[in-house]
Amino acid sequence: MQKTTKLLSILFGLILFVSGCADKQPEPQPKPEEFLTLADLSGRVTLREDSPDVRVIRIKAKAFIKRNDISAAKAKATETAMTQAVAEMVRELLPEEDYNNNYEVIEKYLSSNIQKYVDKTEVNDEKKIFGGKYYGVDTAHKVNRQKVLVALQKDLKLINNSSSTLVPVITSKKNIDLSKSGFTFSDLEEALMNQIQTDLNQRGLRAMDFRNAVTSVQTDEKVKKKFSKISKEQFMAIVSGSPADKALLNTQVLNAEEFYTTGLSLLKLMAKVVVEVNIFAVSGNVKGDMALSMNVTAKNVSTGRGGAFANSVINVARRGGPSVIPSAMITGLVKDAYKAMEEEFIPQVIKEMSTISVGGNRLIAYELVLKDFQSKEVRKLRSKLKQIESDDFRYVSYDNSLPTIVTIIVRHSGKVEDLGDTVMELLDSAGINSKEPIVAPDLSDLVFVRLADEG
Q: In the chain, what are the domains?
């Protein structure tokens, strides 16, 4: 009997144990707020593109919190974001091949004095992320396009004065008075110049403002001794083949014929094609309807057999209103006009230049953030990433200073979602389970969280 009772007690205890194991709940998953990423930062941008010469660029970035110093981490993250904003502007201005081959030199030069190229910065949202180890910021930056352009042309000489250069010039023979419209001619001039340069540079051409073209050539001391600084009128007189004695020349130039001969040689040094945008009329104002009428002409000046090869007359109009700001109206008019130019005029220019590179895929820096991965899994992924290096993908480095978070830095051209898919496929092929990363246009990092193996 005693043995039977003891056996029943053991069986009863075993049943309770099994029952307890069956009812045991899985360990609770960490709450989302315990692992915030840059994707969780979302602020409202108040900066405006209130000048044709600036662009407002939004960037999210992070910095490691050292010694619990939040202020230092915020400052570092903001500086990183500022650098990325300027890099985005550089990518707009350079052909993809030039940028991809020189991005390290560009970043080193620009980052040494990054504040020079950013007129204003604001932090729209900020918080601790990645388990409180990093500080993330959502920022917006007013990047000065002209200052970046000058750095690329004059200092880094990446937009050079070779015979493949195209020089756009904005003119107005009617001396248009825009005082009633709400903006000045120089505002319209800068907006058109920016649109033309940015688009043609993105298409692989070297399009530079005539002022910067002249400045870049004058860095050659021999040329500088022969040729003084020229005005837009002088430049166009040379382009149009106007007789030297009728050209608007500097008073210090005594020998007009020598000026013309030297000027034409200089023009051939700095450009292959000159695009003149001659604004005929601007009517209306930003509080109502506005219309823009202009003529665009492209002329090959690099050879004696050159001359005008493309010409278009463009008329566009937009509706304004009481709440419309002048810069927005300028931007709208210019974009509408340029859209019309793209139909026939720009293709002819591209064909004439014949040095076009149509790729357009510039390498962008991304961080692959791996959470809760084993060290051997990270090593395996790094090895696979190195194996797939190409013109469109570069492995750069990694950071494993935190116990549970490893960051792999890469450069990728193309869609960010394609980069995410590539990494997920590598993880799947290695039998590693991971959450799909959040992908968004303003995110520079992809976060992969390791999942428990099934079974």
A: 33-146 (no CATH), 160-353 (no CATH), 363-449 (3.30.70)
